[in-house]
Amino acid sequence: HQPRVQQAMDWVMLNLRAIAIAAGALFALIVIIMSMVAYQRGVNQKAIALEGKAFTLHQEAQDKARSGQQSAEKTDGAQPEDAYKDALTAYQDVIVSYGDTESGKRAVYMLGSIQLETGKYDEAKQSFENYLAKSPNGILAVNAEEGLAYILEQQQKFQEALDAFKKLEGKAKRPVCTHHNDSRAPETRRL
User: Fold this and answer.
1) Per-residue pLDDT at 57
2) What is the pLDDT, as a whole number, of residue 29?
3) pLDDT tops 50 at residue 154
C-alpha cells in the first residue's frame, strides 16, 4: 500500500496546478449557475407581480362592465375596449418585459381574451394563435382553441365554429363553452 500512496502523492504534486485550475473552474461554474438560477427566480417573481397587477385591472374592468357602468360610458362615446385599456396595457407590458416566462405566455392568452370580449376578433385570433404557438400544451391551450372557435362563430363561419367546438369536446376536461361569458353565442353553448 505504501508505494501506491506515494505514487498518488507524487502524481498530485506533479499535477497540483492543473488540479487547482480544474477546482477553480468547477467553483466558478457553480457560482455562475447559482447566480443564473437566482436571477431567473427574480425575473419570474417580477413577472408574476406584473401579471397580478394586470389581472386585477382586468377583473376591475369586468366588474365595471357587469355593473352597468360600461353602458353608461357608451353614451359618452366610450368604446367597449376603453374599460379594458389599463388591463390591456399591463398585459402588453408583461409580454414585452417577460415574454419568455410563464407569466408572459399567460399574458398573451389574457390579451386575446380581452380582445375577444371587446369584439376585436382579428387581434384576438392573433393572440390566441400566438399563445398556442408558444404553449401548445399549456394550461390555457384548450381555452385559446375555444376562443378561436368563438371568433369563427362571430365571423359567421358557423360550420367551422361547430367543428371546432366538437373537436374541443374531446380535449376539454370541463364542459365546453363555459370560459367566455359571451351572451352573443347561445347556439354554441347548447353543444
Assistant:
1) 92
2) 94
3) yes
Cell numbers linked to 149 = 372557435
Q: What is the distance of C-alpha 61 from the center of its chain?
A: 20
pTM above the 0.85 mark? Answer: no
Spacing of C-alpha 183 from chain mean position: 26
Annotate 85-105 with b (16+ C-beta within 10 A) or e (fewer): ebbbebbeebbeebeebebbb
Say what the pLDDT of residue 77 is: 55
Rounded to 5 degrees, φ, ψ at 157 are -100, 70
**pLDDT at residue 75 is higher than 60:** no
**Lowest pLDDT segment from 28-37, 124-133, 176-185:** 176-185
C-alpha triplet 51, 189, 169: angle, nearest 5°: 80
